UniProtKB/TrEMBL annotation:
The keyword Signal does not apply. The keyword Nucleotidyltransferase does not apply. CDD domains: ABC_DR_subfamily_A. It comes from Allorhodopirellula heiligendammensis. This is ABC transporter ATP-binding protein YtrB. Signal peptide: none annotated.
Length: 320
């Protein structure tokens, strides 16, 4: 199966900033791939490279089997793109902007666009300038999908939209994947991503911390609370294939987020000198994201002391 998008050792350097640092991933057809990251993590730079608007400093990228640096127009013909602030001609009506855009695509674009607008109940004679933000987003999505692209790229598409419009976007992503098409979603809306994504990638300061199927990622991440009889006690190191995503000392408790932690590692840790107990609990996607980007799961200053929270109480926490 040919990957829809591939990135190999992708690097993008600006003056005084490394936006991307050796990014590697591959996206298979018929899936929703979610790229999570804070503002400034490099998500938009990644999309600009994928669509041929930015040439990487080094590394390679292909989209639908095409190198976007060599054939950017061919890539753009085969993808649909929606940003958080779609650039639409305000002086045009909803119908006129569909007619105008149809001139760049094969026959069939305009009927598909009109059907989408009708489904969203947006009058064709209404000027773009008179549309709400949610309606503008629906017009942008209709324009992006009318030529039935192989790949739909969404860059923070639901930012500032009401719940009903966000639901429409989520349903469109699921429908695309179900039809064998691919969706690349860039976002920091964790709860929305968790509802639709097949694969999660977390980008932090230009580097991918994790890339894995959502279910596999959540199953592989564990929070450990290691209670010590003395805060100066040194515990055994956690070796490969496990990976420590964050590690902090809170009084007599050592709190770690570990990927691929095994029962054998638990037994070794629990039997170490000075270790009173070892408790495990699974993590939500939001907690995994925080651990990968912040390097800590501690509560903000002013909340109750995390060291005072029992493992039983911690296990009952629900992240929304």
């Amino acid at each position: 199966m040919t990957s829809v998008i591939t990135a190999q050792s992708l690097t993008m350097r600006f003056r005084g900033c490394d936006a991307l640092r050796g990014v590697d991933f591959a996206i298979e057809p018929g899936s929703v791939f979610a790229l999570l990251g804070e503002n400034g993590a490099g998500k938009t730079t990644m999309i600009r490279i994928m669509t041929g608007f930015q040439k990487p400093t080094s590394g390679e990228c292909t989209v639908c089997g095409i190198d976007p640096t060599r054939h950017p127009l061919e890539v753009r013909r085969r993808v649909g793109y929606v940003s958080d602030a779609p650039a639409l001609y305000d002086w045009m009506s909803v119908g006129e902007i569909g007619w105008f855009t149809a001139s760049f695509f094969p026959d069939g674009f305009l009927p598909a666009y009109r059907e989408s607008i009708r489904r969203y109940e947006i009058p064709e004679d209404r000027k773009i300038r008179h549309l709400s933000k949610g309606q503008r987003a629906k017009v942008a999505l209709s324009l992006a999908l009318a030529h039935d692209p192989e790949l739909l790229i969404l860059d923070e598409p639901t930012s500032g939209l009401d719940p009903m419009v966000r639901r429409d976007f989520l349903e469109s992503m699921i429908d695309r994947a179900a039809s064998g098409r691919t969706v690349f979603l860039s976002s920091h809306q964790i709860s929305e991503v968790e509802r639709v994504a097949d694969t999660i990638a977390i980008l932090h300061e230009g580097k991918l911390r994790v890339v894995a199927p959502l279910i596999e990622l959540k199953q592989s991440m564990t929070e450990l609370t290691v209670s010590l009889d003395d805060p100066l006690v040194a515990i055994p190191s956690i070796d490969e294939p496990a990976e420590v995503m964050c590690d902090e000392l809170l009084g007599r408790q050592r709190r770690m987020v570990v990927r691929n932690f095994t029962p054998e590692m638990h037994a070794r840790l629990a039997s170490a000198t000075g270790v009173v107990s070892v408790h495990e609990r699974p993590l939500s996607l939001e907690e995994i994201f925080i651990a990968c980007t912040k390097g800590s799961l501690s509560r903000p200053q002013g909340d109750s002391d995390p060291a005072a929270v029992t493992p039983q109480a911690a296990a009952m926490e629900v992240t929304i």
